[in-house]
Amino acid sequence: MDSVEQTAEILLCLSPAEVASLKEGINFFRNKSTSKDYIIYKDKSFLRACKNLCKHQGGLFIKDIEDLDGRSVKCTKHNWKLDVSTMKYINPPGSFCQDELVVEMDENNGLSLLELNPPNPWDFEPRSPEDLAFGEVQITYLTHACMDLKLGDKRMVFDPWLIGPAFARGWWLLHEPPSDWLERLCQADLIYISHMHSDHLSYPTLKQLSERRPDIPIYVGNTERPVFWNLNQSGVQLTNINVVPFGVWQQVDKNLRFMILMDGVHPEMDTCIIVEYKGHKILNTVDCTRPNGGRLPAKVALMMSDFAGGASGFPMTFSGGKFTEEWKAQFIKTERKKLLHYKAQLVKDLQPRIYCPFAGYFVESHPSDKYIKETNIKNDPNELNNLIKKKSDVVTWTPRPGAVLDLGRVLKDPTDSKGITEPPEGTKIYKDSWDFGPYLNILNAAIEDEIFLHSSWIKEYFTWAGFKDYNLVIRMIETDEDFNPLPGGYDYLVDFLDLSFPKERPSREHPYEEIRSRVDVIRHVVKNGLLWDDLYIGFQTRLQRDPDIYHHLFWNHFQIKLPLTPPNWSSFLMHFS
């Protein structure tokens, strides 16, 4: 019997108005057509949800009047109590966890509750762990989110970003990868790429690999926006890309299999992976916000996840209103701390034997981004690992480039000094120079492109982008390196209600955003039909908004939903020849 592809069933939909009227704390809902009941817990912008069904004997929960914090509900059958903010039963204590539903927001800020089926697909055809010989399973950290796994006689690599920048020119590698990184990639039997962001899918890295092994097997999840949507444009020749369904074991050999899972918050683009060798699971949640909707296998041999924060233009690239330097610094401090405690709690709940924080080792090293580098403080992996040690007896590993974890040794004896081999004395750990030139030349080439001799490129581009019927006006300003308006650069308004390009702001009530972008990056993005992550996550814009609201629909469209093929500029230019 084959395992079946994991599907998501919609259990309840709320309209944008119902979502807007959710109150802080506990909200009860009934789906009138199925007569099934649900609970949604709201904590500012974070939502959790579950069926209103007690695990004990299926009783209905009601508000717990003894609960002053507004976090718990009480079962009408036997007074069992559930803390909806953590989804744990508090009476009887330490008994069960409530199964969570996936909360998905739609284009208009409506909401759906989804149930993943099967919820725990890794339980299909379970295998008992066998003893591992020393040296049989070795995990070598290369850099950022890139791990080289030796699994018996097979080699698997995660997310190779080993040269060049990510997000246009905003992110550069913090760690110096081992000098033999290309040989290691060439020797891999398979590569897993978690998602399309350029710190995971690095075309400069894959270009070097493809010149030596164009047929290397690469595996990606079946996301709504294909991971390799931009392969043709990239000029990289890879001939063996495999898109696999979610929640299905992929058998590599008799001892090795893997399964790709979707993210509950960004199912259209994010994935994570479970690799299993002789019954020992390695869980890599990568950048997922709620991997597999929050349900994950407990007690895996090794878990790795992101931890650092700072992977967003918010709030460092914002100004005006509340966005003073003090507010931004305080916000970053608070958010990083929340993330640190969330990750520590997750590790405590899942109880892996070993935990490794990774995928946060980047630096804004280009001199023009000095402000971002100094203000966008990231979490320290050692601080997280110390927090985990206080809460549990999980073994932690702070990886350094070229360090090797011997899984068999550490599982047998966590105190074995040979369990983790650090890189040799004198190995360069941190990069101190980056080859900016060639990558900036590519961006600069777009500035002089003949498209931009004709101001009608603006209408052509935004028509191609396909976002309209939304009450938002943006002002786009091309700038120099320091975000000052570029003499002779474009400065224009776009009104998304009717997709017009007025000379001045309309007289009706409308939200307004001003987006200043470095001219090389915005023109490169426009010319090549790239996603706006390069601008936003890459810190290449400065933003002001009035009122101060996040326009999810607008940003989601330009960061995830742009057309898969770039604008047809050659036909555009024919009008002028």
UniProtKB/TrEMBL annotation:
Cellular compartment(s): Cytoplasm
Domain Rieske: 14-112
Keyword Transport set for record: yes
Protein EC: 1.14.18.2
Catalytic activity annotation: CMP-N-acetyl-beta-neuraminate + 2 Fe(II)-[cytochrome b5] + O2 + 2 H(+) = CMP-N-glycoloyl-beta-neuraminate + 2 Fe(III)-[cytochrome b5] + H2O
GO molecular function, one term: CMP-N-acetylneuraminate monooxygenase activity
Any GO BP: N-acetylneuraminate metabolic process
A single Gene Ontology CC term: cytoplasm
Protein name as annotated: Cytidine monophosphate-N-acetylneuraminic acid hydroxylase
Native organism: Oryctolagus cuniculus (Rabbit)
